[in-house]
């Protein structure tokens, strides 16, 4: 792949990435969340079209118009999220999309033979007739691998294949990868886990901000240097100064032994008035799930949650809201807003009881004036209070979500990816608003996949790994290298 | 000034939403009136149309709440029959007479309808079973029960306490004095329920939550909305509306029959909602729109009868109108989202 570029609205996801994969090798592709690994591989698999750049296979330039074209060129993808039909068994899943046909009907015998051959190649006996939905994650992954093999793929991409596997299953996966390698296939192995690389990778390519930063032989690329290459840049300085937490500030949010299997694993954390606790970690580490459990979005959970010293039983979102916990969700469109409703209706949705006329009918005038106050104070760029949320830009939508939670008297704000997908100007405004909340004595927990943001906007950084808080850093000690090391499990 | 602009925008959106049904109605009425040599716009005929649509409109009101949450209630027709039978049985066995009998009978019917709605909602909110399934099951169960309770025959009312509701008129001395046609009681029920439902849907927290759930259930839940409670209540409302229709039919025919409203009524109630601009995917809709939807369907039937259109052809026309309404709604939506 040479000079691959790809832009999404507002984001340059890939910026002239070049990558070489040899036959019979495993190339590890590493990088922070959002570095462009998945986008690059989706270009290779035909799921995305690159804006620029070329792809060569065996020295021949190729055009990969879609997933089918990629398949025909011998490119096989194994996504992190499997693409299996859970009701179908291994045979039918492997055949799906290229069913052998005899006289207009599916040739079951040929399909079975193909699946059997693929598993024979893997050297693994397999329950061919069990619906995929009833198999373990590792077994489902084997179906994906067999599927790729049955399509005669010579370039195989695996996106975090070990993420959901046990150690023994990982060993077996590595054995399979080695045998694929021996048969001449080239394998791109995407991983977050540094400790795996020596066991499986021949070469390592580090991606950062949509660019290929460095490629070296694995043996010449020690983990700490990989981490450094992943972090690389200096911290952006567009973060405002955090006001110091008062020495006598009381603990506002106190969470003890919060547990919700499998994603949240006995988590305890305290946040004081005027303090931001940043939760760092890799995608899937359990950061969002910790917040969702606190906010009552995922129940039942065990553990003790207290706000201002009073224990709160959180059995549903309204319990948390009543206790003064506001949860600003990661996905504005799916969870934060009712897109078909107006700005006004979205702003008041969580606190309609504050807008009642004689405790029965909604007082529309009060709604409008409250909404207009927020439009002014948060600079929400909307032509009117009646504009539908769907017509607003991402940053503006995020401000509407914030306004929704500012209506109430929340003490605790849980921000999940507060600035994802919004422009720099709107980001600064959101930061300024967080500082404003701190000055009013709020406690903030923030999850962000942008490392500079977590480091720049947190008094303390807690690194989440496998659903538990692996390490905690004070603002001054939270260097990118240390945080990444803790998040990826490199011994510091 | 901004105030006025916002209000104007909101009003415009509101009218745009029901404009389709309304415009079609006006054109239709004028055309029909011309074709029927002025017979259509006679006061007596207008009142006749209103009476004819009142049953369907009331069913459709309840259905509107359900559909805005992106649900569906297939059981309304059967519930009309079952509630009618139960009420007739109760009326015949209760040791009451006059107004107390009427009120007690209505209360029993409402309780049965509301209970059925609650049962409809239970699997929906507890187990996330599609309402299509639960209300389909209720449709069969309620119909079967109606036949079992009545042994398959209409149950004639032994009391004449209901006659005033069934065939009586509202404030007849006044309308007579003004030389207006008598207003049938079902029309009064329909009018009152339209007002009540409009307020419920547009002015209360409950109504706002109905829209929010239909628009984005997860966002509503995370905003602290008691999704299960709200969803349950929309099916209860729908069941209660069916009970009221059962009550009116029973009063009108002086009997509770297991065959009432088990034909096209279910589909017509859904058609009225959809023609009235309420989205089947939820989150959008209005009570006034539903009324115009029911009115449009009623006007179509009435005018085709006036013009002597073959009854099979009437069905074809109704089907085409429903299809056009939905296509028009989709086109309007695309137009609005592009603007």
Short description:
The complex is a heterodimer of chains A (492) and B (339). With 492 residues, chain A is an alpha/beta fold.
Tell me what you see in this structure.
The complex is a heterodimer of chains A (492) and B (339). Chain A is built from 17 helices and 24 strands. With 492 residues, chain A is of the alpha/beta class. Chain A has a 6-stranded mixed sheet, with helices on both faces. A 6-stranded mixed sheet of chain A has the order 18-21-22-15-23-24, with helices on both faces. The model of chain A has no long low-confidence stretch (mean pLDDT 87). Chain B is mainly α. Chain B has one domain: ABC transporter involved in vitamin B12 uptake, BtuC, CATH 1.10.3470. Chain B contains 14 helices and 4 strands. Chain B is globular and about 55 Å long. The two termini of chain B are 23 Å apart. The chains are: A alpha/beta (492), B mainly alpha (339). The interface between A and B is medium-sized, with 35 and 29 residues.
Strand and helix map with partners:
The complex is a heterodimer of chains A (492) and B (339).
Chain A: E1 2-8, E2 11-17, E3 26-31, H1 37-44, E4 52-57, E5 60-62, H2 67-72, E6 75-78, H3 90-95, E7 101-102, E8 105-106, H4 108-122, H5 137-150, E9 155-159, H6 167-182, E10 186-190, H7 197-200, E11 203-208, E12 211-217, H8 223-231, E13 251-260, E14 264-272, E15 276-281, H9 287-295, E16 302-307, E17 310-312, H10 317-322, E18 325-328, H11 332-336, H12 343-348, E19 356-357, E20 361-362, H13 364-377, H14 394-406, E21 412-416, H15 424-439, E22 443-447, H16 451-456, E23 460-465, E24 468-474, H17 480-488
Parallel strand pairs in A: 3-10, 3-11, 6-9, 9-10, 15-22, 15-23, 18-21, 21-22
Antiparallel strand pairs in A: 1-2, 1-4, 4-5, 7-8, 11-12, 13-14, 13-16, 16-17, 19-20, 23-24
Chain B: H1 2-35, H2 43-68, H3 76-93, H4 98-127, H5 131-150, E1 155-156, H6 163-167, E2 169-170, H7 172-177, E3 183-184, H8 185-203, H9 205-215, H10 217-222, H11 227-253, E4 255-256, H12 265-275, H13 287-306, H14 311-338
Antiparallel strand pairs in B: 1-4, 2-3
Helix pairs in contact in B: 1-13, 2-8, 2-9, 2-11, 2-12, 2-13, 3-4, 3-5, 3-11, 4-5, 4-11, 8-9, 9-11, 12-13, 13-14
